[in-house]
Amino acid sequence: MPVLKVHLCRLFDGLQRLWEHPRCRMAVGWVLILTFAGALLVIEAARQGWIPDPAKALPRSHFYAISAAFTVLLYVEVIDLVFGLSRSFSDAVGKQFEIFALILLRQPFKELTLLPEPLAWPADPGPLTVIAASALGALAIFAILHGFQAVLGHPPLSSDSRETQDFVAAKKVLALGLLVFLVVNGLRHLSIYLSGAPAGHFFDTFYTVLVFCDVLIVLLSLRHSHRFTVVFRNSAFVMATVLLRLGLTAPPTHGAVVGVGAALYVLAVAALYRRQTTMEPGSGHPAAPPSVGD
Prior knowledge:
By secondary structure, this protein is an all-alpha fold. It has one domain (about 5-280). The protein is about 75% helix and about 0% strand. The protein has 9 helices and no strands. It has helices at about 5-20, 20-50, 65-85, 90-110, 125-150, 160-195, 200-220, 230-250, 250-280. α1 (about 5-20) packs across α6, α4 runs antiparallel to α5 and α4 (about 90-110) packs antiparallel against α9 (about 250-280). It is globular, with a radius of gyration of 21 Å.
């Protein structure tokens, strides 16, 4: 293995250990709590006129605090996704759907900011339609993911342990690059947002980059395995990422439908892949232990 790749893998492993350390997870929990509490205080101060806000840029609905906390939580989940990419491509696909489900759950709180406080039945039921579609879509994806995890198999990409290690190392280098992009792009969006200019949608950009990363993983896997079942499964998972990307830019109700359809798609792919691999000679028991090489 090239020296540069070895150093990059060690750097990635160190960052992963730091991120998954219990103290770091505790700190992340406090950040979420302080984000929520801080947003509530700022919103209440703006409502009472304690903060100068001549342009009325600060939100006046307390439900913005929930949306802000959910946004930070989504950033945390995205970092988990990047680190998990080196372990298992199929598990990372499942994580993408978990993030999409959380994005759907965040949408109802955005819609609640359009309603008066205290909450009352609105004259225009439009926001309630979006709330119902997003909540039910998230619930459906949550249920489908349970089935996806149940049928998901993790056969090693190659019977050669050296090839498997090389593939995992390549995924770590790719994940490290994705992590750098995540940090840089996050800081850029934050600076644009603080300047008052439209910052665009961070998760739309991230899922677009994720599509290309997934394609690269498929191409990297071809160096070690040309089995049609593996190539088809990985390529189908990339298509699922494309569908999620389209769902993010669609209207909320349409996005929920696209997300549920994509979840059903990966469930069918995973189930058929597991059935096919158990029928192949030397496939072993269908409940083989997870492997980082898939």
